[in-house]
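Lay summary

Proteins are chains of building blocks that fold into shapes. Our project writes down both the chain and a compact code for its shape. Here are two examples, one after the other.
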Amino acid sequence: MRRLRMEKGMRLEESCMPASPSPMLVERLLREWRENGLRWEKAALQARGLGLLVFNPALYASEVYELFLRKYPPAPGAILALGLNPGPYGMAQTGIPFTDCRTATRDLGIPLELPGRAPPGLARLLKKPGGSWRGTYERSSLLIYKFLRLAWEGLREACANWYVGNPCPLLFLDPEEWNVTPADPRLRRLAIVSELRLEALRRFHQALKPRGIVCLGRDVSALLGPLADSLVGPGKVVRYEHPARAVPDSWARGLIEELGERGLLRP
């Protein structure tokens, strides 16, 4: 009887563990990440025609992203998270979504000093005229990593269950207004921007086969939410506040609650 109970307990424990990361999936996602970056080069050209400065960290920081993905691989069926586009203090420097240099070094063990992999043109913009940095971390990174720690046991398990597929890999800067997102009216008038975001979602879904999709922010929810519903079913899509201006603890716990109600935290 004791042996049977132990075996039952072992099966229960195993059933709570995430699916094992797949080397084949990592290769597919790396290929899609690069191809997505290349597809957006045409949009970058059009955005520059509007007077915006445009940078593509999916291309210039691809070696850091590859290091991250191989070190913290997602498992097949992981939750697919969709954000807006890179922030100047996060992915634009590290190549990793929602991750600044401080977080990459401290939490991921990927040493990066400001301004990370930012090209010289962007690095100059990240400094004030006096030479000090405009910012040293990305606020969204604080909330995302707090959520990951609370939702799962350790970052390896968290990354096995949570994958950020950036539908738009471009950083847009207005010399007058600074950071610009795909929700900006100027970019909305470019049909290619919406088309490429939708195409990216289709391709990331095809590669990952996620058990659920999280749309972060109103703009992402409005544009990508209907397609996400059709891909995984409305009951498996979470439309949630973007972390940029939220309160860290309540934002993280609220997202965990939303995922838990839909049975998405574990496979």
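And here is the second example, written the same way.
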Amino acid sequence: MPLKIAAKVDGDDVEYFDHAIRPQLDHALIEFVGEVNENEKDDFLGNAFAYLFPIDWPEPFGLTMVESMACGTPVVAMNCGSVPEVVTDGVTGFVCQTFGDFITSVPKVGGINRRACRDEAERRFSVPVMASAYEQIYRSLTPETAAA
């Protein structure tokens, strides 16, 4: 299965990328496309079989997972940081405990309903839903509400 990798390589990281990463991408099925701009993102994510998120640090939110689900693309991610709060295991993708689980989950993505991914993203992370949740939090922190 082809693997397309979209990522920004910051100027400070170019030397490391060229020395340590780029040689590992030399495979007929791997394509490094570089940074994807906002105009290209929906097409890139929406046409993907899956969005792979092999995170190994406590990412506080992971907006790219939500963007993928909004495009109807299931997410395969390591159980780290916000992943289990964003991805509903078995519904919008897979939350993996080990890298072995990560690899074996990819073929299972075909069983995920892409419409369910989109619906879940809309239900939980749309602008009106997020704005309302923030407003509720802010209201709960005002002195008038705290004193009541």
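What can we say about the second shape? The longest strand covers residues 30-34.
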